[in-house]
Amino acid sequence: MSLLSVKEYKLYSNFLNTLAKNLNKFYYSKLNKTFVISNKLKGKGYDPVTTSDKAFEKFIRLKIKQKFPGHQVIGEEFGHKKSTSDFTWVIDPIDGTRSYVIGNPTWSNLISLNYKGNPVVGLANFPVLNKYYLNTNNKKAYVFENNKRKKISVSKDILFSNIKVSGAFHGAVSLKQQMKIPKVLKLMQFPTADALSYSHLCEGKIDVVFQATNKIWDIHPLMPIIKAAGGVVTTWDNRDAVNAGNILVSANQLIHNKMLKLLKPVSK
């Protein structure tokens, strides 16, 4: 069921389409230079944040405020701007900050529009790769590259025996726990590259992606794109991915069910 009208989808997808282009201009004119890195965990681990993360989020918040001043905003770096609106923007200014820090081009700007808590329009923008992914309603998603728009869809008819799997535990599953899921370990043959892996699944380039410890800003912007491209997304214990946490995305329900079963020993 569609949560937005045709007119609303057009309004918000057009806004994100323009924002993607503005984000690229902003990056190359203001941020493509030396930046400062801080560690959020201060000796208790490593969770980097850069001056670029904060600059991107301020830029995105400003654009939202100019166009939709009454809407709520939740961002990774600057928290929750509350209002009575049913619409909330969820922002990850740089998804893949570790990649950004070491110069990998797979980092992105992730933005979703949520209606009554449900992600309905999402953007995954990759400035260095010069492309972005966006859904225009609940049935159509596109990749925009070289000034061209191409409709994307998952490999719906792929057989489980032929699936390409990308997975990452991000330190959340111990080696002892991993020994309980040998079939999953054997399937993990393809690298995980931040939000780009989820985006590649939407293009049919990969068939299963799972990651641990996703926050809402890591997955909400990708959920509408995944669903519009025909994919299935839940947590490892088959709850709504809107809750974030350990996320599983598959090309079809049959594959998803098999992966849920294989991940069950570590999904509790």
TrEMBL record:
An MF annotation (GO) of this entry: inositol monophosphate 1-phosphatase activity
Binding site for Mg(2+): 76, 92, 94-95, 218
Record carries keyword Ion transport: no
Any one Pfam family match given in the protein's UniProt record, by short name: Inositol_P
GO biological process, one term: signal transduction
Key words, A-Z: Magnesium, Metal-binding
Gene3D superfamilies: 3.40.190.80, Fructose-1,6-Bisphosphatase, subunit A, domain 1
Cofactor(s) this protein cannot do without: Mg(2+)
InterPro entries: Inositol_monophosphatase-like
Family (UniProt): Belongs to the inositol monophosphatase superfamily.
Protein name: Inositol monophosphatase family protein
